[in-house]
Amino acid sequence: MTDTLSNIAFDDLVEDDRKGPYVEQITADLAGRLAGPIGQPHDVALAPPAVFPVIFLKALRASMGGIPAGSVLAKQELRFGEPVPVGESVRTTTWIGEKYVRRERPYVVIRFDVRRADGALAVSGSKTIMWPTGPGDQA
């Protein structure tokens, strides 16, 4: 069984080391469950915005084992491009955009892009995570 939480130390993260692309299909079930009130599926033709954080988390799990235990999401940014039809597969690439320490707290900016089957950019963004280990700490 694969761990669901990462234990990668801050020092072991390499900036701009791209991982992926990881292929994920935008299913009608996933899109429908995230298109309206939670738990009330809807029929939709295009992936709603809420699908893309889920796609990112799946890619993060594939690339580094998931979110580090003890981490805190400090900020996220999403920039939307071309819409993605339900049923289409997307390719997600992740990478460490930046590592820094502010007020004695370590932060990691994880960047990602999600591309449609035709290569068009669907979503790009970043998630800034307060990392559970800092420089010199072991996981």
For the structure shown, list the relevant keywords.
139 residues, mainly beta, five-stranded antiparallel β-sheet, 2 helices, 5 strands, elongated
Question: What's the gist of this structure?
Answer:
With 139 residues, this protein is mainly beta. The chain has helices at 28-33, 51-64; strands at 19-25, 72-80, 89-102, 105-115, 121-130.
Topology:
Elements: E1 19-25, H1 28-33, H2 51-64, E2 72-80, E3 89-102, E4 105-115, E5 121-130
Antiparallel strand pairs: 1-3, 2-5, 3-4, 4-5
Overview of the structural elements:
The chain has 139 residues and is mainly beta. Helix content is 14%, strand content 37%. It has two helices and five strands, in the order E-H-H-E-E-E-E. The protein has helices at residues 28-33, 51-64, and strands at 19-25, 72-80, 89-102, 105-115, 121-130. The chain has a five-stranded antiparallel sheet with strand order 1-3-4-5-2, with helices on one face. A hairpin with a 5-residue loop joins strand 4 and strand 5. The radius of gyration is 16 Å and the shape is elongated. The mean pLDDT is 91.
